[in-house]
Amino acid sequence: MPAAAEDVDLPDSLIELSGRYGVATGYTDWTGRPVTVAPATLTAVLDALGVPAATEEDRTAALTAHDRAHWARSLPPVIVGRSRVATTFWVHVTHGDPARLWLRLEDGSVRTGLRQLENNTAPFDLDGRLIGEASFELPADLPVGYHRLYLQVGSSDVSTTVIVAPASLEAPRLGSGRAWGLATQLYSVRSRNSWGVGDLTDLTDLAVWSAARHGAGFVLVNPLHAAAPAAPMEPSPYLPTSRRFVNPMYLRVAAVAEFAFVRHRGRIRKAQAAVQMRADRSEQIDRDRAWKTKREALEIIYQVELSAGREIAYQAFLDREGRSLDDFATWCALAERDGNDWHRWPEALRHPRSEEVAAFVEENPAAVDFHRWLQWLVDDQLGAAQSAAVQAGMELGLMGDLAVGVDPDGADAWALQDVLALGVTAGAPPDEFNQLGQDWSQPPWRPDRLAEAAYEPFRALVAAILRHTGGVRIDHIIGLFRLWWIPRGVLPTEGTYVRYDHEAMIGIVALEAQRAGAVVVGEDLGTVEPWVRDYLHDRGLFGTSILWFEMDRDGSGGPLPAERWRENCLSAVTTHDLPPTRGYLAGEHVRLRDELGLLTRPADEELAGDRAQQQAWMSELRRVGLLDEGDTDVDAVVLALHRYLGRTPSRLLALSLADAVGEVRTQNQPGTTDEYPNWRIPLGGSDGQQVLLESIFTDPRAAALCEAMRAAVKPPA
């Protein structure tokens, strides 16, 4: 466990150096206990930021280098401001020289005459040249967007990116009303025409049914991020090979336009029937078999010549996606030949800009282009799904889910390795529900390198997920403020927080969402600094409330009364990291953690605490008239809990599809990988039998819960 505050005496130089790089030397844990971070942790995290800090001499040199780098820079690496607010920035020139500035806006127009402010900072001696600092102000009337600031230095110019984000994100599609939606793990939702896993046509049908029959405003779907193309395919949608691109496993083969021109289509249909039959008999989702069969069919379709119009559309897609798509497709082709872990490839192939990688692309054009083509198909089917959802009456349509990070051995880690931190992984400190902490194994962004790149990789990521959605849920949005970094080889408890420029990160999210007309939901559960939720609210981003976690910690200690829940919020009874509500009521979350050795106190104590909490909720449901005295019927309780959401002011409400069909089993148990079949549970009913999509459409339990949600957001006049 981390050392208590009084147990560690940190050197002043280590505290100063850590502060400059945003590395926390102390924090407050989930119990309210102050913790001082161990020196070894700080040294390892600073090393991952490229800052030697093991000795006093190292730290002195690093502090000096930090000062010199700051004063040697003429302009900040990026300037971030808000619309309707003047933004101050500094400029460094030779002391006494004038600073000539102008701004080129995104639309090509030019602004001059930026106002200079008083700055009495003393000049800095940089190798015998005095560097002066001046302060200027960007005007408050700048349009939102990505602009360019120029400074004349001698006979040449230097420049930097200016990002102007909306002061507060509006939600035009939602207006002033409320909406409800289904939350689903798409891979688990099969129809009769799937290929062993749920696909984008299934998602389309689910959206159209819930909108047309029950007035749903959105479908919140698990991250559709790309997985590695070669077996074994990572089952977790939250540990993708790329967040920038989509898993082609979700393609519906028959929906590809060129499928109609394939000879012997009957063979493809037989392959589809065989993989479906195997899925019918299996207790777990077999992604590898499903993808192998589907990939073989797609390889056949790839040989069909595109029509003239389709060829133009494909080339336009390639032009828009550019180098990012080329890198991803190249990694996929290499992974199919050399394996999914790029660290084990020949050294010459371990960086995307190497001559050997370029030679591979030149020698294997079809292998690389196949993966570009797959992404085009996915983009096309996602666009069709969103269009169908909106046409069916949804206010938002699809709501995507953005994972925290990526597989350290995968495509994004290879392509973006220059802006990721090596030697550490992202995770979470211990909290009430994960008392041993979590190590997600994912390499975090380096804050300094992101700024140097003007946040372009992050901008592209956010824009991509909003391309065909009306909203996005950002998993662990607190990671855009500070993220728990764990040095490689140590326990999750031995990490520390590293701060990010949340003005830049949240500002970019708001800017891209405004351009897409989308809402943003931040998953802000767990250990959260109190001011963060207020900040997100002020910026127009929604938070997340899960009923079981909404307790009155400042009052009775019981359930937080519905009227005190947040308004700008997505509220639900459960989440994918807990069992569905039927399972939760049965104590499945305690039983499973005990079985897997994840509890830090005896199971009897944990169960007693859980029963007390559940009884408090039953009392609350009876108090507000949603549950009759003595009624313990599980279906009645589940229905009452969801109706309770309607008593809150929350503008977005979610119903888990697993709850709608009466599922008991959890999809994911945090803190485990293969100890439990995470993300491999096919959707089932209360009897444990698999449920196909077509049967959901006529399921009375699902209809009753959906109608309760409709009534919650759109009560009769």
UniProtKB/TrEMBL annotation:
Uppermost EC category: transferase
UniProt entry keywords in alphabetical sequence: Carbohydrate metabolism, Glycosyltransferase, Transferase
Name the UniProt record assigns to this protein: 4-alpha-glucanotransferase
E.C. designation(s): 2.4.1.25
Reaction(s) catalysed (UniProt annotation): Transfers a segment of a (1->4)-alpha-D-glucan to a new position in an acceptor, which may be glucose or a (1->4)-alpha-D-glucan
Keyword Transport: no
MalQ N-terminal beta-sandwich domain sequence ranges: 75-166
Gene: malQ
GO molecular function: 4-alpha-glucanotransferase activity
InterPro entries named among the record's database cross-references: GH, Glyco_hydro_77, MalQ_N
Top-level lineage group: Bacteria
Family affiliation: Belongs to the disproportionating enzyme family.
Pfam families the record matches: Glyco_hydro_77, MalQ_N
One GO BP annotation of this record: carbohydrate metabolic process
